Amino acid sequence: MSARGAIENVLNRYSIAYDDNDMAEMADTFAEDAVLTMRIAGGDLIGPFEGKPAVMKLMTDSLASQTDQRRHVTTNVAIRKETEDAATVTSYLTLISVQDGKATLLSTAKYEDELVREGDGAWRFTKRHIELDLPY
Predict the structure, then answer these.
(1) Coiled-coil ranges per the record (predicted)?
(2) Domains in the chain, start-ordered, CATH in brackets?
(3) Burial level of 76, CB count in 10 A (0-12/13-18/19+)?
(4) pLDDT class for 2, splitting at 50, 70, 90?
(5) Which of 12, 25, 53, 76 could form a disulfide with 17, with the two C-beta atoms 3.0–4.6 Å apart?
(6) pTM higher than the cut 0.85
């Protein structure tokens, strides 16, 4: 698999893992020292959540508060900078909620990511910033 394909695969694995409540799979997309931040609708910066345990607690708590089925759709993947073992990536998120037989657009967002290729050859997030356009 090309580096681009492997990087896109990490973005998509993260989304599918969240939607499937597969926290082991999601955890595998983050490096041990990963940092996650977010901002909702131009508000204050939320985070940083530092280290894989803090990032995963945020994800687990967020998922536990939901009663709907989420679908995270990642598009417009642009690799801004790439070396053999690191990449900076920008992409878009379309966040859809499915509940009571109805699909509803919850928000859109921009992801700003930094990934590294670790010793096992796998690409993982070291930094992820989520800039949500709307509160949900």
Answers:
(1) none
(2) 3-132 (3.10.450.50)
(3) exposed
(4) confident
(5) 25
(6) yes
Structure tokens at 28: 């595998």
Tokens 């037989």 correspond to 101
The token duo for 41 is 């609708």
For residue range 47-58, list pLDDT tens digits in order. Answer: 999 999 999 999
User: Could you give the CA distance from residue 56 to residue 41 in angstroms, rounded to a whole number?
Assistant: 23
Taking the CA atoms of residue 76, residue 89, residue 47 and residue 52 in that order, the dihedral angle to the nearest 10 degrees is: 110
The b/e string for 51-72 (b: 16+ C-beta within 10 A; e otherwise) is: bbeebbeebeeeeeeeeeebbb
Q: Where are the beta strands (DSSP E) in the chain?
A: 30-40, 45-50, 69-82, 86-99, 102-117, 123-132
